[in-house]
Automatic annotation (TrEMBL):
<keyword id="KW-0813">Transport</keyword>
<comment type="subunit">
    <text>The complex is composed of two ATP-binding proteins (PstB), two transmembrane proteins (PstC and PstA) and a solute-binding protein (PstS).</text>
</comment>
<dbReference type="Pfam" id="PF12849">
    <property type="entry name" value="PBP_like_2"/>
</dbReference>
<feature type="signal peptide">
    <location>
        <begin position="1"/>
        <end position="20"/>
    </location>
</feature>
<dbReference type="GO" id="GO:0042301">
    <property type="term" value="F:phosphate ion binding"/>
</dbReference>
<dbReference type="InterPro" id="IPR024370">
    <property type="entry name" value="PBP_domain"/>
</dbReference>
<comment type="similarity">
    <text>Belongs to the PstS family.</text>
</comment>
<keyword id="KW-0732">Signal</keyword>
<dbReference type="InterPro" id="IPR050962">
    <property type="entry name" value="Phosphate-bind_PstS"/>
</dbReference>
<dbReference type="GO" id="GO:0035435">
    <property type="term" value="P:phosphate ion transmembrane transport"/>
</dbReference>
<feature type="domain" description="PBP">
    <location>
        <begin position="35"/>
        <end position="307"/>
    </location>
</feature>
<protein>
    <recommendedName>
        <fullName>Phosphate-binding protein</fullName>
    </recommendedName>
</protein>
<dbReference type="GO" id="GO:0043190">
    <property type="term" value="C:ATP-binding cassette (ABC) transporter complex"/>
</dbReference>
<keyword id="KW-0592">Phosphate transport</keyword>
<dbReference type="InterPro" id="IPR005673">
    <property type="entry name" value="ABC_phos-bd_PstS"/>
</dbReference>
<comment type="function">
    <text>Part of the ABC transporter complex PstSACB involved in phosphate import.</text>
</comment>
Length: 349
């Protein structure tokens, strides 16, 4: 039986007992471990890596292997049943869900900001980018850092006469989905051009370059003077890359801080299917590009012990794991979302 207790130690002890009772033993009497295989989003990968390592260290007999290959890759693996769970920043759309034999249980686990990190070594003041400016950059219409559309939001700042190099994702990416969902919400031209997707047709230009996963985009920005790209906040923070303050729906320039990300999430109600989007949050202090990120689980597992181990791991992440979210640059789930996700675990058997 699944234990839903407030104290992680008790839940972990219960899991260890369940594993001992359900797993087969070797001839020497040792318990075989349960391995949970997952793949998908790179957006939450640093946090998931920490969670899974700490959980495996705390619970004897459970090992978790997670490969960050991008949301699209994780969804593909999940559809093909080559993993026990997957992760995506784009959840799954109806067409994708329809391809999964047995269906899917979507569980938001954390949230984070997609930031515009840049490489302008001589710029001392935080860069401010209006909606006109950052949409124009990613449409390929603004190609120099001293463009008037950028300069008018940065009074007194000496902007370099330097070409803008845009770094995009090379893989099928939930981060790209979140970013293009926002750009399409604020710009009809972007919506009718590149549009929304895990992969989109960016402008054809030698100043648009592709790199794989969040860490690849981060490294490329860091190595390329004049570069700008979209990555998860924690990657930019760890790499010590500056991040632009973006114009919000309320017309204010907002920094990608934890509090401003929380302000964006505050107005979101979680629906029954757990797919909640906020492409353009309205609160005055809301950072404009924030998203939940999801685990994808099957409703039915042939191995009962594996199903129980997966659910206990998720419970640990929803409770003990949330304590490290902010430290890693992510937004801890609101209490009402933790409660809703915990209840949704009844759908997994």
């Amino acid at each position: 039986m699944l234990c839903r207790l407030a104290f992680p130690f008790v839940a972990i002890t219960a899991l260890a007992a369940a594993i001992a009772g359900c797993s087969s033993s070797t001839s020497s009497g040792s318990v075989e471990s349960i391995k949970l295989q997952g793949s998908g989003a790179s957006f939450p990968a640093p946090l998931y890596g920490r969670w899974f390592k700490e959980y495996s260290g705390a619970v004897n007999g459970v090992r978790i292997d997670y490969q960050a290959k991008g949301s699209g890759g994780g969804i593909k693996d999940f559809i093909e049943h080559t993993v026990d769970f997957a992760a995506s920043d784009a959840a799954m759309n109806d067409e994708e869900i329809g391809q999964v034999d047995g269906g899917v249980v979507l569980l938001p686990m954390t949230a984070g900001s997609v930031v515009l990190a840049y490489n302008l070594p001589k710029l001392k003041s935080p860069l401010k980018l209006s909606r006109e400016a950052y949409v124009g950059i990613f449409l390929g219409k603004i190609s120099s850092w001293d463009d008037a559309a950028i300069a008018k939001s940065n009074d007194g700042v000496e902007l370099p006469k330097l070409p803008i190099t845009v770094v995009q994702r090379a893989d099928s990416s939930g981060t790209t989905f979140v970013f293009t969902n926002h750009l399409s919400a604020v710009s009809e031209e972007f919506k009718n051009g590149p549009g929304v997707g895990k992969s989109v047709n960016w402008p054809s230009s030698d100043k648009f370059i592709a790199a794989p996963k969040n860490d690849g985009v981060t490294a490329t920005i860091k190595q390329t003077p004049g570069a700008i790209g979209y990555i998860e906040f924690g990657f930019a923070d760890q790499a010590k890359l500056p991040m632009a303050n973006l114009e919000s729906k309320a017309g204010k320039f907002v920094s990608p801080s934890l509090d401003n990300a929380k302000a964006a999430l505050a107005g979101v109600e979680m629906p029954a299917d757990m797919r909640a989007w906020l492409p353009d949050p309205e609160a005055d202090s809301a950072y404009p590009i924030v998203s939940y990120t999801w685990l994808l689980c099957y409703p039915k597992y042939e191995d009962t012990a594996k199903a129980d181990a997966l659910k206990e791991m998720i419970i640990w992440c929803l409770n003990e794991g949330q304590n490290s979210s902010a430290e890693m640059g992510y937004v801890p789930l609101p209490a009402n979302v933790v409660e809703a996700v915990t209840a949704k675990l009844d759908s997994i058997q």
